[in-house]
Amino acid sequence: MTGTFRRIATEEAWSIPEVAQELQKICSHLPAYSADLSLMAGVYDRQPGYGAMNFLDGLLDDERRIREMDQHGVDVAVTALTAPGVQMFDADTACELAALANDRLAELIARHPGRFVGLATAAPHAPKRAAREMERAIQKLKFNGFMINSHTNNEYLDSPKFWPILEAAEALDYPIYIHPRAASDLMSGPLRDYGMDAAMWGYGVEVGTHAVRIMASGVLDRFPRLKIVIGHMGEAVHFWLWRITFMNSRAQRIGRAPKTQLTMDEYFRRNFAITTSGVEDPLALDYSIRKIGVDNVMWAIDYPYQPTEPAVRFMDEAPLSDADKAKVYGGNAERIFKIAAA
Description:
globular; alpha/beta; six-stranded parallel beta sheet; 15 helices
């Protein structure tokens, strides 16, 4: 462990050549209006990332990743197949590549004991097969959670067709990390201009919408022990939580939303945790801790899409007590993802 605090970065992107090659094929055929084009072209057409590092190089080069972690004192990376995961492939291809990616990630973890934690990839468009892969990932590969890249074919996890996935996550007692991808088709139109479709705005709108759907649908009454993690300082959901709660209660009274056992505020505090990935704003961090409690906030880098050094410096300099900083830097991740103590 480096320094005073164990640094566990909780949203770190990774890939394998086989997935990258299949996504490159898709990228070459995407129409100009595709909402996924920005991310796909930026990564798989090898457009420059930040500094000298191309994003794809950062995703594929495990030794470079280790050197970066060592250079900046990152102890553990909670790692998952990068967006859009396998969710743009047909179901059979997606299931095959999900299993392959999970096996490769398990090999990476075994090669570097104590440095990596795995979040399993699954194919939501084959829900029962996805649930079986989730079980394998936890029981055989010893992973610590799951990564779903928001919508699949424009459908969200509140849909009953995906409930086998939610049931498996709750039964296995490990969290689902809902990660961004380009907004679904009906949402994406106004986001296509001015670079708004990607991390600037669109990704947060997409995942924030997904999170609110899960709360407002009542699905958390069916799966009350389900734990969901969302990144990028909570995709701003908790900044709107008072209004979301107030307006949802009104929508319930007039029959526009289903009756739920808890309020939206209560669901968010009970079922959600957030990470700081890609948001290095001390005021946003302070608000998040005050609003949802320090136990629900975890540090992340978002490597390789965000540089490591500023993310470490941000948390090193955060005006928190040592006890709270220890929780955000690593203690909360140990508890939520069930990571063995150092």
